[in-house]
Amino acid sequence: MMSYPVIKSRSNRPYQICNCCVMDTTDEDIIFDLNGVCMRCNEYKERIEPTWNHGKGHEKELEQLTTAIKKSGEGKEYDCILGLSGGLDSSYMLHLAVKEWGLRPYVYHIDAGWNLLVAEENIQKITDKLGVELHIEKLDWEEMREMQLAWFRTGLESLDVPQDHAFIAVIDKLAGKLGIKYILNGYNIATEVYADPASWGKGGGPTGDGTYLKDVIKKYSTKPIKKYSFTNGFKHKFVVPFIHGVKTVTPLNYVSFTKKDMIDTLSREYGYVPYGQKHFEDLITKFLEGYWVPTRFGHDIRRAWLSSLVITGQMSRNDALKILEQPPLSEDESKELFTEVASKLGISEKELKEFHEMPECTEKFRSQEKIYTFGIRLYEKVGLEMRIRK
């Protein structure tokens, strides 16, 4: 029934891969210089690396930040907010926040109905040993199921928007409700400096854009969505930071570490079980990134992650290329996930296969994409955006 076909780039350009990292012309917008080096690698060398310096030399900045966080939380039960997915980045940040920095985070987890058991066990082990209370926000499954099906019906590539938007919306809700002035964001240059290429998500809108979500729901949902929390760019980028005075900070960028350091520390301290690939702690994301996107659209999200490790000196380019020689999931694993996702969504495998074979989306949806793009470019200019988004 299933196979794992190799899909060629949709670009009409001759195939080319960067001589520095492993990004290639599956990104239709990629640009190479005369030495065959892509624009991401050049931007990293020019804009990111000099100030980041692999996390070294930021001790004073980190101390100032943690001091400010503690001061803002005086007399309160918590001094910061930390979203814990169970993934490597948020788990390592929680470890440092409590054990190394002495912070008192309000730790929350979004249960969108797709958690894998291994992730839940990792979360429990870490929070139990650190002695922090875990606050779980459980989303309405019937609504999440209907929204997920709506996105499948669009034919779009970015299909994990329903739960990703919920994560952002809950952060915005908590920021206004709790009166806590700092949100700890687990983004870090060391393992994810290269974002997914913009060309891989054509046709959709920004994940945090409620305008886009509501348009998709209006056109493709068969049931009303009443309990789901929405947010938007104005609320996330203006109301939360400037009205509520809440700062979102990325403290992992002030620390020197590697991906291996993160795994070793968490495994040793908490018995943490790695997932094999970033985002594989979640069933729907594992399915989409490990099978659906590579076989339907020809995009391998590992290229961005591996390139981040290569450019930051944690992995050789040859080792990254060897990893890419094999698909993210074996055929047996793909079949198992296919069956599991179809069952979870309450549809037949035949129906899910029809979604996989349907034409790609050419429809345009309402969104505030121009506002988001302007904001990102502005943040880059003032040094607040430390991720390469091309």
Task: Walk me through what this model shows.
The structure is a single chain. It is built from 16 helices and five strands. By secondary structure, the chain is mainly α. It has one domain (about 40-380): HUPs (Rossmann fold, 3-Layer(aba) Sandwich). The protein has a five-stranded parallel β-sheet, sandwiched between helices. α5 (about 140-155) packs across α8 and α11 packs across α14 (about 330-345). The radius of gyration is 21 Å and the shape is globular. It starts with about 40 loop residues before the first helix and ends in a 9-residue tail after the last helix. Mean pLDDT is about 90; it is low at about 1-10.
Summed up:
50% of the residues lie in helices and 6% in strands. The protein is mainly alpha-helical and 390 residues long. The chain has a single domain, classed as 3-Layer(aba) Sandwich (Rossmann fold).
Topology:
Blueprint: H1 39-52, H2 59-72, E1 80-83, H3 88-100, E2 105-111, H4 117-130, E3 134-138, H5 141-154, H6 161-178, E4 182-184, H7 189-192, H8 210-220, H9 233-243, E5 247-249, H10 259-270, H11 283-297, H12 302-311, H13 317-324, H14 331-345, H15 349-357, H16 369-381
Helix pairs in contact: 3-10, 5-8, 11-14
Low-confidence stretches: 1-9
From the alpha carbons, calculate the radius of gyration and give it in angstroms: 21 Å
The tally of helices reads 16
Structural class computed from helices and strand pairing: mainly alpha
CATH structural fold name: Rossmann fold
Strand count: 5
Describe the oligomeric state of these chains in a short phrase. Answer: single chain
| Second-tier CATH architecture | 3-Layer(aba) Sandwich
CATH class: Alpha Beta
What's the structural domain tally? 1
Strand content: 5-15%
Order of helices and strands: HHEHEHEHHEHHHEHHHHHHH
Helicity range: 40-55%
Shape: globular
